[in-house]
TrEMBL record:
UniProt-listed GO biological process terms: tryptophanyl-tRNA aminoacylation
UniProt signal peptide: none
Localization annotation: Cytoplasm
Pfam families named among the record's database cross-references: tRNA-synt_1b (PF00579)
HAMAP family: Trp_tRNA_synth_B
Designated name of the protein: Tryptophan--tRNA ligase
Oligomer status and interactors: Homodimer.
Gene: trpS
Motif 'HIGH' region, residue range(s) on this chain: 11-19
Top-level taxonomic group: Bacteria
Binding site for ATP: 10-12, 18-19, 146-148, 185, 194-198
Length: 326
């Protein structure tokens, strides 16, 4: 238990099966072997326009979703990023050792800048540096994320190495943790793009808080590939491969077993069964979700803030001493 995992989710949009299978499910699987720190990364969310009232309620919603997914609040530190000011302080310091060319190369920045031409702000550009600060403050060993975040964790390592060699050995170098299956759940309406909260069509994703009947509809409407054979083939049958991966992870059945089970059956039958698997998963998930009230969540976030602040302050003091401002 002396190793630490750190990860977070933005309180923006509707959390979906991609966020669950790519991140949350792995946090739960790892939580008994590591000291766990899970953050609601609200300062990341404001790099895109947010309605303040919605943002406030989404922060509590995300913390509830962590618990509904199975994170144990008695052992994990769960907190809100903006409540621990060391994150933005360290981000500023790391900014001074980050090259703008490094940030220009970030795929997420390029994608988001393309989608939000009217709001390409400094925060969006600087997002990876704030993320590096999030991770490095907690002496993190492992960062469990979906594969869209691996480039950011790599930059975190570069900045940690650069800081340690320029000033003093303060930061631990974190490793990214990406599970092969579920690392990139693709859009149901377009298997060439990842499932995304900010997708223009709600038929792109199944939200964790979608009504089970709606989720069934979304699965039945998911695009499929040509042909009819149930075979996992990422290149030739990307849409089917995506559905098989979701099925396999939610039902805990291997893809090979699914291929054998649906041998000689068509896509329609697979989709019908998957729709039931997803609906059952959501009904159980949402039952747990509805059991947490706001007061309980606020208490958890306050306890988390206190614990996170203490760890973060210690690291920030070392950083300030190393650069000569303290
Ligand atoms: N499609 C995905 N498949 C697997 N993992 C995914 N993640 C996101 N999308 C997928 C992982 O979920 C965690 C939290 O993500 P985030 O809140 O930081 O948002 P994001 O990475 O920007 O992706 P979203 O949720 O789809 O939002 P938008 O639409 O804003 O890009 C991360 O670990 C992420 O890797």
């Amino acid at each position: 238990m002396n190793k630490t995992i750190f990860s977070g989710v933005q309180p923006s949009g509707n959390l979906h099966l991609g966020n669950y299978l790519g991140a949350l499910k792995n946090w739960v699987a790892l939580q008994n072997q590591y000291r766990c720190i899970f953050c609601v990364v609200d300062y990341h969310a404001i790099t895109l326009k947010q309605d303040p009232k919605v943002l406030r309620s989404k922060i509590l919603e995300i913390a509830k979703l962590y618990l509904a997914a199975g994170i144990n609040p008695e052992t994990a530190i769960i907190f809100q990023q903006s409540q621990v000011s060391a994150h933005t302080e360290l981000a500023w310091i790391l900014n001074t050792i980050t090259k703008t060319a490094e940030l220009q190369r970030m795929t997420q920045f390029k994608d988001k800048a393309k989608e939000n031409k009217e709001n390409i702000n400094m925060g969006l550009f600087d997002y990876p540096v704030l993320m590096a600060a999030d991770i490095l403050l907690y002496n993190t060993d492992l960062v469990p994320v979906g594969d869209d975040q691996s480039q950011h964790v790599e930059l975190t390592r570069v900045l940690a190495r650069r800081f340690n060699s320029r000033f003093k050995d303060v930061f631990k170098l974190p490793e990214v943790y990406i599970q092969k299956q579920g690392a990139r759940v693709m859009g149901l309406d377009d298997p060439r793009k990842k499932m995304s909260k900010s997708a223009s069509s709600e038929f792109n994703y199944v939200a964790l808080l979608d009504k089970p009947a709606m989720a069934r509809k979304k699965i039945m409407k998911a695009v499929t590939d040509s042909g009819s054979e149930i075979k996992f083939d990422l290149r030739k049958k990307p849409a089917l491969a995506n559905l098989l991966a979701i099925y396999s992870l939610l039902a805990n059945v291997s893809v090979q077993e699914l291929e054998a089970r649906y041998n000689g059956h068509g896509y329609g039958e697979l989709k019908k069964d998957l729709a039931e698997v997803v609906a059952k998963f959501l009904a159980e998930f949402q039952h747990r979700f509805s059991g947490f009230d706001d007061q309980f969540i606020n208490n958890i976030l306050e306890q988390g803030r206190q614990k996170a602040s203490a760890i973060a302050a210690e690291t920030l003091t070392k950083v300030k001493e190393a650069i000569g401002v303290a």
